[in-house]
Specification:
Strand order of the largest sheet: 2-1-7-6-5
Largest sheet: 5 strands, antiparallel
Radius of gyration: 23 Å
Number of helices: 5
Helix content: 25-40%
Shape: extended
Structural class: alpha+beta
Number of strands: 7
């Protein structure tokens, strides 16, 4: 005599073997470990919030690295946003302009410490623009490079000014030696 079918008596097994779940978890951890955190002594969440207020946009990116070595300390936004090749704004018109990536600007800034504040059209019809900002972060051995592209992209000079404030709010930049911190930042 056959037993009556019941979901309680039917043997089941997971469709996904445990090895696949463990493998997926390890892959996620590896990807998280590859992404840079924040500079030492800086709260990443605080820095993310400050940068988001300053230049937050799906088409913006900020990289912070050690001066000299160019070792990446922080990235705001994804690889997709940060690795786009856009007009460098250092040449003539858009057709003649050299294309560059933000990582190239960061490496150049890490080696030279040069300040960059450029902007230009990223489309021939002028419907979209790109802004580039880079330079040393006050009072630290860090440099930054930032890019914003789109129909409402900030010019490079404006990005640099807004990021300077964001770095102060997130306590990334330090008051240079010999200067006084504003009264609002002094310890009681």
């Amino acid at each position: 005599m056959r037993r009556l079918w019941s979901c309680w008596t039917t043997p089941t097994r997971s469709r996904r073997p445990p090895e696949a779940v463990v493998g997926a978890a390890l892959a996620a951890l590896a990807l998280a470990a590859c992404s840079p955190g924040a500079p030492p002594g800086v709260d990443r969440a605080e820095l993310d919030a400050a940068v988001s207020r300053a230049i937050g946009d799906p088409n913006s990116c900020l990289l912070i690295a050690k001066a000299g070595s160019g070792k990446l300390q922080y990235r705001y936004n994804t690889h997709t946003a940060c690795d786009r090749e856009l007009p460098s704004c250092e040449g003539g018109g858009i057709r003649e302009a050299a294309k560059t990536k933000l990582g190239q600007l960061l490496n150049r800034t890490a080696q030279t410490g040069a300040v960059v504040q450029l902007s230009c059209d990223s489309e021939p019809d002028g419907s979209r623009g790109v802004g580039w900002a880079a330079g040393p972060i006050a009072g630290t051995d860090l440099v930054y490079a930032a890019m914003m592209e789109g129909d409402r992209a900030f010019p490079g000079r404006m990005m640099a000014d807004r990021l300077e404030g964001a770095f102060r709010r997130a306590k990334v930049s330090k008051a240079p030696a010999g200067t006084q911190a504003p009264a609002s930042q002094k310890a009681p």
